[in-house]
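> call design_seq(struct)
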């Protein structure tokens, strides 16, 4: 019968089954099979008080003991899990109590891996935090913050709540990542946009252009054929300077230069199109004209104001780029052709198929251009005729077909920032001498118009006219973007300027109830 028992043991049959065999008697006590834990209590699991071992298998075992089915005697050790403590299981091979899964030994006790007092494999409590309490997450110490606070590292920090849609951590600070509709990022977190509206006595405007000089915002609205109205004043108190009927005919958007010169593309006296300027003098308007070369039509206009008045304007025709200097009295002229300065007529980007061209001029006279061509976005800069910058870059969006608009912004030192609108707006800039592309997720919206400016710190302020509807404001503080929706309506056009260092978004739309155009300004306090 003993040979049968050996066979069962070899087959892995439990000792409880073997205990049912009648031939197992105490006389078997010297065989190698009955080798269990020694009787010496000191060799039991550390901290386990074996107690007084007594009784037999027939009368019942007492103390920390189990029934040895081979000898019929009670031996030190555990017989099942009930003999062990909390978070312990009985190891039926060694007859010792061991820590269960999800627990670990601290001294003589088993403690929970998920308890903040013994998190992971620790035997010391997790540190707490002001405005929060210690917590254990996936075996790692953490903090559970009080309402209104967010865990950033090991600290609980206060997060702004008014108008905030989403926050995140930057080192040990809680920062705003997105503001709710009608709010934009500001020093305190999110501030409500201050909205002001003025109704024009004209209707049909589809363009709006804005500029800041003389402590005021100057706005011009225009249609595809003529200037509609000119406003000026503080963003929340614009007043109508003049409305349609001036005899000013422009094709497309206009620009504004100090002290109040309106620049645009209009009908020339001797050519199909010309760069035209208007400056109000009393009740009349003085007109200036700079004819196009070769009778070409113009399709883009960008002006950079000069401190003493007037400024430099760049305009395109298909895509040679022309330059003009505008005096403070509104007289346009070709700039002189001197080494290192802007040429009068040169091929900045000879590729075909370009669209949405954006042009800027920096303080040194260098021309920067950005335009969409086929499925690429091309940036170039030049200082003279046919002088291509070796640092020119071609940017291919991750989804080239999604590129709908572009914008070029120059920082305080003339450093270029390239913005490419689509399902994911791309921000391309130089970092450490190399170009880096960052994505600004617009949640599937397509930006079909982008206007942007850089403040004195080099931080970007961006207004987006989205194809899916609405106006969005985005701010880049040098490390990350914060995004918020200004309004859900879709205006005809928008522009963005910085007034007293803060962004002002200007839109123009048609009021269906009155048939008049309404100019809206949105400003962060």
């Amino acid at each position: 019968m003993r040979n049968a028992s050996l066979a069962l043991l070899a087959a892995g049959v439990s000792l409880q089954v073997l205990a049912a065999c009648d031939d197992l008697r105490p006389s078997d006590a010297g065989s190698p099979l009955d080798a269990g834990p020694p009787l010496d209590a000191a060799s039991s699991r550390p901290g386990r008080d074996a107690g007084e071992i007594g009784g037999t298998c027939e009368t019942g075992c007492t103390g920390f003991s189990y029934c040895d089915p081979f000898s019929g005697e009670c031996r030190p050790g555990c017989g099942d899990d009930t003999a062990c403590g909390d978070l312990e299981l009985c190891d039926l091979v060694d007859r010792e109590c061991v820590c269960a899964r999800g627990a670990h030994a601290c001294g003589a006790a088993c403690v929970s891996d998920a308890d903040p007092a013994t998190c992971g494999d620790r035997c010391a409590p997790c540190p707490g935090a002001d405005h929060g309490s210690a917590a254990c997450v996936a075996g790692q110490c953490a903090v559970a913050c009080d309402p209104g606070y967010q865990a950033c590292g090991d600290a609980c920090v206060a997060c702004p709540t008014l108008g905030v849609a989403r926050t995140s951590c930057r080192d040990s600070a809680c920062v705003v990542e997105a503001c709710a509709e009608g709010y934009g990022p500001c020093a305190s977190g999110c501030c409500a946009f201050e909205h002001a509206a003025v109704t024009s006595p004209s209707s049909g405007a589809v363009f709006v252009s804005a500029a800041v000089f003389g402590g005021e915002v100057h706005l011009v609205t225009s249609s595809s054929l003529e200037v509609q109205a000119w406003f000026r004043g503080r963003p929340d108190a614009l007043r109508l300077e003049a409305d349609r009927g001036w005899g000013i005919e422009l094709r497309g958007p206009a620009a504004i230069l100090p002290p109040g010169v309106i620049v645009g593309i209009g009908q020339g006296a001797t050519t199909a199109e010309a760069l035209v300027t208007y400056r109000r003098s009393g009740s009349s308007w003085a007109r200036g004209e700079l004819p196009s070369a070769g009778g070409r039509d113009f399709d883009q206009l960008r002006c950079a104001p000069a401190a003493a008045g007037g400024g430099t304007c760049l305009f395109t025709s298909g895509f040679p780029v022309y330059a003009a200097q505008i005096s403070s009295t509104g007289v346009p002229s070709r700039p002189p052709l001197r080494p290192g300065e802007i040429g009068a007529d040169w091929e900045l980007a000879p590729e075909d198929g370009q669209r949405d061209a954006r042009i800027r001029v920096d303080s040194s006279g260098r021309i920067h251009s950005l335009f969409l061509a086929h499925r690429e976005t091309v940036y170039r800069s030049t200082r003279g005729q046919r002088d291509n910058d070796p640092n020119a870059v071609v940017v291919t969006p991750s989804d080239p077909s999604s590129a709908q608009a572009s914008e070029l912004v120059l920082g305080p030192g003339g450093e270029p920032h390239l913005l490419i609108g689509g399902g994911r707006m791309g921000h391309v800039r130089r970092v450490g001498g190399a170009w880096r592309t960052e994505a600004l997720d617009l949640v599937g919206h397509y930006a079909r118009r982008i206007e942007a400016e850089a403040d004195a710190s080099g931080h970007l302020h961006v207004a987006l006219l989205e194809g899916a509807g609405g106006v969005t404001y985005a701010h880049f503080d040098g490390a990350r973007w914060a995004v918020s929706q200004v309004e859900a309506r879709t205006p005809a056009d928008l522009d963005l300027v910085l007034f007293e260092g803060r962004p002002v978004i200007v839109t123009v739309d048609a009021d269906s109830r009155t048939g008049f155009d309404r100019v809206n300004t949105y400003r962060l306090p």
